[in-house]
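Example 3.
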Amino acid sequence: MIRFNNDYSEGAHPRILEALGAINFSQNAGYGEDEHCRAAAERIRALAGQPDAAVHFLVGGTQANATVIDAALRPHQGVLCAETGHICGHETGAVEATGHKVLPLPARAGKITAEQVEEYCRAHWADASFEHYVQPKMVYLSLPTELGTLYTKAELEAMRAVCDRRGLYLFVDGARLGYGLAAPACDITLPQLAALCDVFYLGGTKQGALFGEAVVLRNDALKADFRYLIKQHGGMLAKGWLLGVQFEELLRDDLYFRLAGHADSLAERLRTALGQMGVPFYVDSPTNQLFPILPDGVLEALARDYTFTETARVDEGRRAVRLCTSWATRPEHVEALIASVQALLT
Amino acid sequence: MIRFNNDYSEGAHPRILEALGAINFSQNAGYGEDEHCRAAAERIRALAGQPDAAVHFLVGGTQANATVIDAALRPHQGVLCAETGHICGHETGAVEATGHKVLPLPARAGKITAEQVEEYCRAHWADASFEHYVQPKMVYLSLPTELGTLYTKAELEAMRAVCDRRGLYLFVDGARLGYGLAAPACDITLPQLAALCDVFYLGGTKQGALFGEAVVLRNDALKADFRYLIKQHGGMLAKGWLLGVQFEELLRDDLYFRLAGHADSLAERLRTALGQMGVPFYVDSPTNQLFPILPDGVLEALARDYTFTETARVDEGRRAVRLCTSWATRPEHVEALIASVQALLT
Amino acid sequence: MIRFNNDYSEGAHPRILEALGAINFSQNAGYGEDEHCRAAAERIRALAGQPDAAVHFLVGGTQANATVIDAALRPHQGVLCAETGHICGHETGAVEATGHKVLPLPARAGKITAEQVEEYCRAHWADASFEHYVQPKMVYLSLPTELGTLYTKAELEAMRAVCDRRGLYLFVDGARLGYGLAAPACDITLPQLAALCDVFYLGGTKQGALFGEAVVLRNDALKADFRYLIKQHGGMLAKGWLLGVQFEELLRDDLYFRLAGHADSLAERLRTALGQMGVPFYVDSPTNQLFPILPDGVLEALARDYTFTETARVDEGRRAVRLCTSWATRPEHVEALIASVQALLT
Amino acid sequence: MIRFNNDYSEGAHPRILEALGAINFSQNAGYGEDEHCRAAAERIRALAGQPDAAVHFLVGGTQANATVIDAALRPHQGVLCAETGHICGHETGAVEATGHKVLPLPARAGKITAEQVEEYCRAHWADASFEHYVQPKMVYLSLPTELGTLYTKAELEAMRAVCDRRGLYLFVDGARLGYGLAAPACDITLPQLAALCDVFYLGGTKQGALFGEAVVLRNDALKADFRYLIKQHGGMLAKGWLLGVQFEELLRDDLYFRLAGHADSLAERLRTALGQMGVPFYVDSPTNQLFPILPDGVLEALARDYTFTETARVDEGRRAVRLCTSWATRPEHVEALIASVQALLT
């Protein structure tokens, strides 16, 4: 069985394991107050061009999302996001469990617009009974989105502008940020992105680490007491340096972006090959996730040798599925999949 | 200014005030453990044909909704409701504040169907990652709905059937239950309704009491420890007998339903009169709320003498508004409004 | 049965009922946005000497406590209080239900000291792992306390000073504030108290109203969006004017303080009489609650005609009980109780 | 600097790293649904003699505690624990953040008794206003305790009996369970312990793994839907097999208990040596944590070369500190510490 169902089916890049092994018997301060976390945070501040940002390392994405949102919002405030956003449907209500409502907006290809956010805020504040509704206070975006698509620099600038106008925080979920930034179609750099949002994170779990997400807090209001929140949410790893060491290594020699580029180019190879066979796509995604539409029979046959995720039924005979490449995907597996689809379609 | 914007603009029916006055200096046990609450609960059990139901009196609807839902659900469970449901948008996220996600379904005229609930549950349990989603565990309906419409007996029976099949609680918000049951278009009785749901409440605030909602718990699983929940939610009135006395009086001599009938028939008078003038309606509602569509100019002129609530912009020149009659509405005010609209439309 | 077990066994002062009756058919805006709430708030601002304070009316004390605390604290922050404080043990964990830990301090006669608060904060911030502990951010006091005792002006000034030094909010639960301020032993005025705390409330439920607590927010940081919080906590009464009307009336002609004085002087009469019989007291309380220590046999006999609350077992043969007088207590009932105790003790 | 301040200052036993390396490029199903988790769970069920137990792997202890407690309790229920219990003071209110009150009991040497639990329950149910208090529903114990002490088999049996009598869940925090079970003073086996509690966990983080705690649910009522709760709490590791692989390896060839025995015997060596120097102990702890009382001057001097944790000031000149040994402690470090103390004391 060859797995294309997600981008976290393997362990970590060998350099990560080596780095962990190398310091295994060094004694470290716990809870992220060690030199590795400090060095990794420094590296991230430099790469992001944000010398004053606070950087914290958490184990996973759901934890990072819930902790950031809970830290930022007062009880009556909610977070706007695409109806396809990860916090909206894939985290067992982790945001609601902290007491906050997720306010979903209709999405196109996984994206929402500054205009939608503006209109939502306008309507909120125009309602005579506005205090009877959850107050919008944050915008949550994923880059790339859950459908593999990208916001353009102009779209993000417009989103920033509406957030400034309406007093909203802009939070970018970067669980797959590398796959986004490394994509040729991406027109924004890490420093440009960092400058536009109040908080974002740089994902490790899906991009070469065993686990780990680096949360970058740029807005001073969000920095205060953040470590208390991490601890309360069960996200303060006792051996915090395990996270620091991994990010140190990932961000050395551009490894993080090279691994992302590997996945993106294999996805591009797959996309092109499927396209040439006439396979349509559910959404036009330029990163490591792709969503071909295939006949049920083809999918059943493929399922004997490959794993993939169900995305949507498109019509009576066809479904869209998700295929992911990753830092660990082997080119021969991609070629095998291409050959299999080819064989099944002809 | 004559108020048609809601059905709680006046105090209480004079008999309620008299009853409160009559026992003002009697000493009572606190927190609902008095003889008035006991008698009122007994009366409700009899009227509902539910001799084993637990009955509790709470001050208001948002409190009743949040307390019932919080009492019923485990942390990972959510409540299905119409996207127009009161808990979905009008209670400042009170349900989410207890940690539970409200799961909105597209509504038609304020109503959802058994088929929608079945499909939602089917999709939940069919998803390989179902544990990553909030588990549907309760259906919340309003009777009448927030748009003044009614579920038929057949619709409620179908809903009960899907709830049984899928292990869901059925919770009916009866903040305006009297206005529903008293409407000629209503084809269900209180005992029939009570037998179909796990929990419902009988609203007093909008139907002749100063305040108060009587929560009726039929399902044994929901009865356990409910008073702890009321207290924790800040809903246990120190002088609980104030609620008992009001419901005792409201349910004596059929007062509750006669007051509701008064409101419904004035609404019918208004509906007919507006219809005869050619005024269209946003929704066909047979109870005490009506939603005429009127030109902006007419609404502006009306707003000088009458209050009403904005419901929706229908097109560039017209809006739907909500008009409510109530137990306290004076027939001459309805006639005045009819005359005013007539004058403005001609 | 004559009730001395609490100070909320009767309805309301007749003037309250009259005032409610007088405006019963006036139409009002809902949710506290009416002229009665406005006038009552204005009156409270004047009495408290706080022209910029925000005043909101809530139905009950548990609701007021949870709403204020939830509005003030971030998720990792807790509230210091006496171990005997109402929020600590008598509200079914309503504060914890909002996610915040109550941090109890050992109390003497229901009171805590500025030194205790200072020491708690010092220890918190001195701990190398301080982020692993709930951060103290608020002090909650009751005036009078749950044991009927009073803080002196000097004690409150010292508490204010430590709150300023440590960045804490000072919140005074005034469910029985009138009974405190009207007591001869009280050395602080309402304006002096108001000037010392960030938020307090003026209780109505126990002091002549049917129900209602007036929350006074002095600190700007606490004022923002408070109405959203009230709604979310289920505390926004639809017919909010019912609260405004009651406080308008209570605060007219000094009625509130005269009613409190009535209760305090009857308590004093009872205290003196019991003292003359040699009855010891569990605590020396100068307000409307008193805590005599009586033999079990006497208490059993008394329980046939009077209600009281168990406070503590003092030794094998004696218990301390709570007796309350109230605005409604009849002098002849106090005399009857005195006579009964006298008869039982001799 | 040699670290004795905790038992998680190093990475993992080399066999753990080897095992992770060996399967690094194998593709696995995510979220704990892989064969390694299955095998490790099976091994734990066998070791614990609980063939029907549900076993789940979480990253850390705070997460495990909050998830178990949140899964088990209804909103009005709380958890009894020693005032020194980890959930009471060291987890930034993580339990309260889920809405539940921690109900602390006075502890002796970190332990509470069945009698205390019985008395708490008796008092709760005897109070006429019991619904105004948080309902006790769970007992939380740590084995060994936060002070390194052990419950005896008889004490645990008594606790089980009171839990049965009072309808409480018994939850044992086993973050250091191995250090407890491996101690010569321990008179209980893993199967005996497992049979006595409703849920417990077997800690990995402090006992040879990089991280990880294995939660064992014995009571059917706690098993239902537990994975939803893990996900909601941000505890569902995407690469769940990283946990399975570690526990598989730890539990092979008795490694887990041998590592624990190593730590316990080094602690015993240290305890004996310090005792021979006349050093008193704050508590008599037979596991890998010890709490010597030393003069301030000695501690200051030691702090130049060793880390330890402050526990309590004992008198004006002396403090109790915590020293931990671990699976990774080197005997020569223990000897060095002994020599240093010896030199400073003479």
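The interface with chain B takes residues 31, 70-71, 74-76, 98-99, 129, 131-132, 135, 225, 227-229, 231-232 of chain D (CB under 8 Å). Residues 255-276 of chain D form the longest helix (22 residues).
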